[in-house]
Amino acid sequence: MFGYVRPFKPELKIREFETYKAVYCGLCSQLGRSFGVLARLTLSYDFTFLSMLCAGVSDEEPGFERKRCCVNPLRTVPMCRPGRTQSFSADIAALMIYHKLLDNIRDSGILKKMGWRLLYPFARRAYKKAARARPEAEAVISDAMARQTGVESADNTSLDAACEPSADAMAGIFALLSEDDSQKRVLERMGYLIGRYVYICDALDDFEKDEKTGNYNPLVLRYRGGDHDGRAGLFAGARQSLFLTIGEIEKTGDLLDFNNYQPIILNIISMGLRSGVEEILAKKEK
Predict the structure, then answer these.
(1) Which of 182, 151, 156, 180 is nearest to 168 (CA)?
(2) Of 196, 199, 220, which Cα lies nearest the Cα of 209?
(3) pLDDT band at 144 (very low <50, low <70, confident <90, very high)
(4) What are the CA-CA distances from residue 104 to residues 110, 113, 172, 190, 252 (Å)?
(5) 78-116: per-residue pLDDT in tens?
(6) How far from each other are the two terminal CA atoms of the chain, in whole angstroms?
(7) Residues 6+ away with beta carbon under 8 Å from 240
(8) Contacts of 163 (CB under 8 A, 6+ apart)
(9) Whole-angstrom distance, CA of residue 99 vs CA of residue 95
(10) Statement: residue 228 has pLDDT above 90
(11) N or C end of the chain, less CB within 10 A?
(12) How far, in Å, CA of 182 to CA of 254, rounded?
């Protein structure tokens, strides 16, 4: 989850947007508290959504306070107070960023590989701490990443097969957000679909870069293999797949019982995800 799951700001009320920013800043603070200053660089919209969803289906009442911003210590900003939901999201971020770093080291050229290796000791330290705190999540993510490596090694051109490991990883993580069996099943389904959405968005967004570098990308492989009606047709197919996935995500949102943040979460899954797809495709048209 790396930046594609975000709200559609024009449709948020001012107080809702301020609440979203407070959760975002609170997660940044939690990352620094748990794993050090460098961990703040891993902050993303996706992990903010995870934090909000975790709190949304939880009985824990979120609290807020004004604290000094790490980026600009001269001003104070509203932040969500530290709690179970922020800690959970920070730990998941540390686990996923570590595996993403390993993937970057494996796929990058010599110069970039050296740069990623400089970050490895910091990421490894955070990973070990998070893995001790969240062994179930670590097992799910590690298994999924091993399967992802197998799919990529085989140069599989199937978009569904390429999405599957990432989707399964997010399904396992989202299932940890509730102890209620009925809610757990819905969350698991939502996680699977969110993982699929993020993977396809990433493949679409990185199409030109991966085409140039030769990194694995099922869309690039399909394009080179003639499995399409031109580049525009390939992108249109990806858009259709993404919008069908978003439609299914919306259905899971309707089945969840929210205690907190419901309007913001529904804004993200009903409008923010669609806006993200259109933004990526607008860049392709340019």
Answers:
(1) 151
(2) 220
(3) very high
(4) 11, 7, 23, 27, 32
(5) 999 888 889 999 999 999 999 988 888 877 677 777 777
(6) 25
(7) none
(8) 195, 196, 199, 200
(9) 7
(10) no
(11) C
(12) 13
Per-residue confidence (pLDDT) for residue 252, from 0 to 100: 96
Q: Any idea which fold 9-285 has?
A: Farnesyl Diphosphate Synthase (1.10.600)
pLDDT tops 60 at residue 227: no
Instruction: In whole angstroms, give the CA distance from residue 178 to residue 175.
Output: 6
Give the HSE-up count for residue 243: Cα atoms under 13 Å, Cβ half-sphere.
10
Rounded to whole angstroms, how far apart are CA atoms 85 and 265?
A: 15
Contact 259, 56 (CB under 8 A): yes
Tell how far CA 70 is from the center of its chain. Answer: 23
- pTM of structure: 0.93
Q: Which of 134, 141, 122 is nearest to 54 (CA)?
A: 134
Q: Please report, for the chain, the start and end positions of each structural domain, with discontinuous segments joined by +.
A: 9-285
Residue corresponding to tokens 């975000």: 6
Calpha distance 240→274 (Å, rounded) = 11
Q: Which two tokens stand for residue 67?
A: 């604290």
**154 within 8 A of 175, measured Cβ to Cβ:** no
